[in-house]
Amino acid sequence: MAYRINYTDEARGALRTIPGNYRQRLRRLIESLANEPLPVGAKELRNLPYRYRLRLDRWRVIYRVNDDDMTILILLIRRKEGPETYQDIE
C-alpha cells in the first residue's frame, strides 16, 4: 500500500519557485517516496527522529515519515547553503 504525500505551505511555495528543470526532477523524487519512503540515499537527521533528507544536486528535500497513518509530510525544499539549510525544522 502506498504512502500519502502531503506538503507544508512552505514546501509547496518553495517548489513553485524552483527552476523548471529541477522542479520536475524534485516532483518525481517526491512522488517516488509514496512507494518507498526510505530510498537509498535518504538520511535521518540528527536529533530529529523520523525526519529525513534527500539530495538532488544542491537541493534538499526534508520530510517526515509517519508509519502509523502511512503519510509522508514534505517539510522543506531548500537549496543547500550550509548548516542553516537544516535550521527551523519542525
Please tell me the total number of domains: 1
CATH topology group? YaeB-like fold
Count of separate DSSP helical elements:
2
Beta strand count: 5
Corresponding CATH superfamily:
RelE-like
Low-confidence stretches: none
Strand order of the largest sheet: 1-5-4-3-2
Mean pLDDT: 91
Rounded to the nearest angstrom, the distance between the terminal CA atoms is: 27 Å
Residues in β-strands, percent? 25-35%
Largest sheet composition: 5 strands, mixed
Order of helices and strands: EHHEEEE
CATH class: Alpha Beta
What this model shows, in words?
The chain has helices spanning 9-17, 20-32, and strands spanning 4-7, 43-44, 51-56, 59-66, 71-79. The chain is of the alpha+beta class and 90 residues long. The mean pLDDT is 91.
Helix and strand layout, with pairings?
Layout: E1 4-7, H1 9-17, H2 20-32, E2 43-44, E3 51-56, E4 59-66, E5 71-79
Parallel strand pairs: 1-5
Antiparallel strand pairs: 2-3, 3-4, 4-5
Key words describing this protein structure:
90 residues; alpha+beta; YaeB-like fold; 5-stranded mixed sheet; 2 helices; 24% helix; globular
Short description:
The protein is an alpha+beta fold. It contains two helices and five strands; from the N terminus they run E-H-H-E-E-E-E.
